[in-house]
Amino acid sequence: LCIAGGSMGFLTPFTTEEMVEAIQKSLGLRAETHKGPEDVNAPSAVLPGVEQVGGMDDYWGGAIQMTHQLKSTNIGFGTNYRICLSMRMRLDCSIINTEGVIRARYNVLNEVVIDRGSSPYLANLECFCDDVHLTTVQADGIIFSTPTGSTAYSMAAGGSVVHPAVPAILVTPICPHVLSFRSMVFPDHVVLRCFVPYDARAGACVAFDGKNRRELHRGEGVQIQMSVHPVPTINRVDQSFDWLDSLKRNFNFNARIQQKPL
User: Fold this and answer.
1) Do the beta carbons of residue 7 and residue 250 sit within 8 Å?
2) In the sheet where 231-234 sits, what is the strand order?
3) Pick from 47, 144, 24, 142: which is nearest to 92 by CA?
4) What distance in Å separates the CA atoms of residue 171 and residue 180, rounded to the nearest whole number?
5) In this predicted model, what pLDDT tens digit does every residue of 63-76 receive, in sequence order?
6) 221 backbone dihedrals φ, ψ, rounded to 5°
């Protein structure tokens, strides 16, 4: 249950004032005391049952909906007596040394960023997709992002905005010193590797969701793949409504004065 405690609250549809009531509703602790004409199809059970919708056979494809009674109070919560969950993808990231040994491992919800750090030179990085050479990065850095993180650093660097239900990994360069390097979107089953070549002028730095910043020496790299442990988050309405509402409310998405008729 995501509670907004900061300034923007893009992924947090509930305020701190609504926190207790939202928790009680999501646990089925608040049952309706009166059913009006519009509530004739409301479920009678108080404890939630789990129903899969949207073709979520393996990992993605829709929302998990928990069906239970909702009490009509101050906050609007759920739709058609259902509370929707978004399964938010995470990335499993491993730092690999020159001997091929994993020396650190992190799960990230937003992005992993490899950049030049304090070096005055461009970051020189070799990127591979499923052991096939993808590109040589000569830029300030590169971002590997989840769909959830597509509205964070990746968007600021010019990457695409991706719906959180799309199973994908975004690769976005940071200030590339070339005109033809653009953001790319890969399917979630690929394994991406990015390492510092031995002939690079300097090393690089890597950060995971803006934390656990580590230095990468020549010959070291990072392996990125989809984590088998997604993060389920409760929606205020459903995943499309919450996501689009956040885009419009926080970023003024495509806001323009309406064109007047002739």
Assistant:
1) no
2) 49-52, 64-67, 82-88, 231-234
3) 144
4) 14
5) 444 444 444 445 66
6) -160, -175
What are the DSSP E strand ranges found in the chain? 3-4, 14-15, 49-52, 64-67, 82-88, 91-96, 102-108, 111-115, 123-129, 132-139, 141-145, 168-174, 184-187, 192-195, 204-208, 211-216, 221-226, 231-234
> Distance between CA 22 and CA 19 in Å, rounded?
5
- DSSP structure class, residue 34: -
Gyration radius of the chain over CA positions: 22
Asked if 232 contacts 86 with a C-beta cutoff of 8 angstroms, the reply is: yes
**β strands within 39-109, DSSP E:** 49-52, 64-67, 82-88, 91-96, 102-108
Q: How far is CA 53 from the centre of its chain?
A: 21
With b for 16 or more beta-carbon neighbours within 10 A and e for fewer, the 38-59 pattern comes to eeeeeeeeeebeeeeeeeeeee
List, for residues 213-232, the tens digit of each pLDDT value: 999 999 999 999 999 999 99
Q: Which residue carries 């360069």 as its tokens?
A: 173
Alpha carbon distance 147, 220 (integer Å): 26
- How many residues in total does the chain contain? 262
Closest CA to 67 of 52, 53, 48, 86: 48
Residue with the two structure tokens 């938010």 = 88
SS3 48: coil
Q: Alpha-carbon distance 111 to 66, whole Å?
A: 29
Q: Return all residues near 120 (Cβ < 8 A) that are at least 6 apart.
A: none
pLDDT tens-digit map of 148-200: 999 999 999 999 999 999 999 999 999 999 999 999 999 999 999 999 999 99
